[in-house]
Design goal:
- Strand 3 and strand 4 form a beta hairpin.
- The two termini are about 20 Å apart.
- The protein has six helices and five strands; from the N terminus they run H-H-H-E-H-E-H-E-E-H-E.
- It folds into two domains: about 50 residues, no CATH class; about 110 residues, Alpha-Beta Plaits (2-Layer Sandwich), CATH 3.30.70.
- Strands 2-4-3 form a three-stranded antiparallel beta sheet.
Length: about 170
């Protein structure tokens, strides 16, 4: 009975925890009023948006997710430096490209994470997803070898996301 009530009150407990922490960080305080208000919002927001979540999120390998996040942060730093070098040089040396990446990942949340990761990394932007969710169109600011970019995205981003996210 208690477990069912808890599941109904906290449909997405991880999201609730993250929202609560973000609230406290944004307000830069751990005053009792902010703790309570943040907790109320952290509980209400997932409750009010639960119907918008088509699938139940399950994280299979949390350590793989942490490794993935650290990889993405590192890649963002390196890509910032590479893009800065590219734009400080001559524009006629840039080789922009549109790349179609065949997706192995199937879950909507996993595809969303992949597309957002690609867009967060400077120099690449996710442009479109095919209607059958099998191909992701990516724009690269500079692409010497498109097959190398595809290999990089599939190994560093897609492979860990496949391990992490599965549908329930």
């Amino acid at each position: 009975m208690f477990k069912a009530l808890l599941k109904k009150m906290l449909p997405h407990p991880i999201l609730t925890g993250i929202l609560w922490i973000i609230w406290l960080l944004l307000n830069n305080t751990v005053a009792a009023g902010h703790i309570l208000l943040g907790l109320i919002f952290a509980i209400l927001i997932p409750l009010m948006t639960a119907s918008f979540w088509p699938e139940k999120v399950r994280i299979n390998e949390p350590l793989t997710l942490l490794k993935f996040l650290s990889t993405v942060l590192w890649d963002i730093i390196i890509a910032n430096l590479m893009v800065a070098k590219l734009i400080m040089g001559r524009n006629d040396k840039l080789k922009p490209a549109l790349i179609h990446i065949e997706l192995d990942i199937q879950t909507p949340l996993g595809i969303s994470f992949l597309a957002n990761t690609i867009s967060l990394t400077p120099g690449t932007v996710s442009c479109d997803l095919s209607t059958d969710r099998r191909y992701l169109l990516v724009h690269a600011l500079h692409a010497e070898d498109t097959s190398e970019i595809i290999k990089h995205i599939k190994q560093r981003y897609e492979a860990p996301l496949i391990k992490v996210f599965t549908s329930c």
